[in-house]
Amino acid sequence: MHAALDPPAHCSVGGTAAGPGARARTRTDPARRRPAEPHPTDHRLRLPRTLPALRGDVPHARRRPARPLRTGAPGADRTRSRPRRGRLPLRRTAVTGLAHSHPTRGTSAPQEPGAPHPHPPPEGTSTMHHTTPYTATRRPAPRRPRAPRRRALLAATAATALTLLVAGCGTSGSAAHRIRVGVSGDSTEWDVLAKEAKKQGLDVEVVPFDDYSLPNKALAAGDIELNAFQHLVFLAQSNTENGTDIVPLAPTTVVPMGLYSKKVKKLADLPDGARIAHPNDPANEGRALRLLARAKLIELKKGTGLYATADDIAANPHHLRLTPVNAQQTPRLLADVDAAVINDGVASLSGIRAETALFKDDPHSPDVRPYINVIAARAEDRNNPDYAKVIKLYAGRPVQDEARRTSNGTAVHLDLSAAELAKELARVDRQLKGAS
């Protein structure tokens, strides 16, 4: 080991200047002075000014003149290099031996205490840096996620999305597909059907309408998938007026149309000049006039078809005053008129009992076949397998029992195929075009 350098002759360890003109100066007793040590949380390395080799090992370290920092060892070099704040962060690492780096000679192995250093420093330099308990190391950069793990995650996400897509495509016509059915008023038999459909994995939603003109428009626009509120005569008229292509899939029920009154109990009691309200839409107006003709209240011209109007009346012996109104408004006018022709479904919703009718048509008569109510769909969807399941459910006993209960036994279910219904619809359409 090299001997420590003696202090200059003009300096006094006791604290007074020896040379002439020197200013008096005091120094704290080394035994009472605490040696300067780095703060335990300070990870910045204070590099000695006399270690250019070590400073060269630190990347991007700037070689700036050291700022003086007092040390507690007398006679030792009292300056150590302190890096500027904000520079490269270094991690403090404890070492078990002494090491010395040199840019050309490499790094020697740790030396035993008291052994001569293999590479002594130049003459006149301090040996303080040989006992520093720290070495300079860079703080490791954060580890990036492994590429294979990211690829596996992306592959799993893509596989899940593909599975959901295939499942959605495969169930577009099954349980994942909602079937909305437009009905008129409160059709409780369709609520029963929706419960039965759920047992088979079908999602049937009942959509009620208060206006007869709306369900077909909603079906053509794609807002619903099916509707069940109209007979064939009304369907033909709607297709012609709106330019739609809606077809019947299956029959539901045929219900009689009746003549009701709150002022008289019998048909013969109707006075001359009685005011009678009836539906104003072409399909139901023609049916109402034909009903009055069968009741012998009026006479129609020979050859009058299904779409009769007031102009087709050949004789009115009782001088009846016919008042066309909206079909849903006919029950409300019973207090203001002598009688009203009311559809069975509208009468049931209004609490009017079918057996109180003054006159009603026969649902089993061939003349009533054009007035069979049907389940209708868009022509391009007529072969949907889920619609066939709905048709089968409607013909089942739970739904039919509910239909008879709500109609007070007046609803009659007729078993006709889709081909027979299409044939009847074509006949009705020809009459409509002939009448127009």
Give an overview in words.
With 436 residues, this protein is an alpha/beta fold. It has three domains: 1-7 and 45-65 and 80-102 and 117-137, no CATH class; 158-253 and 374-436, Periplasmic binding protein-like II (D-Maltodextrin-Binding Protein, domain 2); 257-361, Periplasmic binding protein-like II (D-Maltodextrin-Binding Protein, domain 2, 3-Layer(aba) Sandwich), CATH 3.40.190. It is 27% helix and 16% strand. The chain has helices at 52-57, 147-170, 188-199, 214-221, 232-242, 282-294, 344-349, 385-394, 397-406, 418-435; strands at residues 90-94, 101-102, 106-107, 134-138, 178-184, 203-209, 226-231, 246-251, 258-260, 275-279, 299-300, 313-315, 321-325, 339-342, 359-360, 373-378. The strands form five sheets. The protein has a five-stranded mixed β-sheet with strand order 6-5-7-16-8, sandwiched between helices. Strands 13-10-14-9-15 form a five-stranded mixed β-sheet. Helix 3 crosses helix 8 (385-394). Residues 1-26, 50-58, 75-81, 88-108, 126-137 and 166-176 have low confidence and may be disordered.
Précis, in short:
The protein is of the alpha/beta class. The protein has helices at residues 52-57, 147-170, 188-199, 214-221, 232-242, 282-294, 344-349, 385-394, 397-406, 418-435; strands spanning 90-94, 101-102, 106-107, 134-138, 178-184, 203-209, 226-231, 246-251, 258-260, 275-279, 299-300, 313-315, 321-325, 339-342, 359-360, 373-378. The strands form five sheets. It has a five-stranded mixed sheet with strand order 6-5-7-16-8, with helices on both faces.
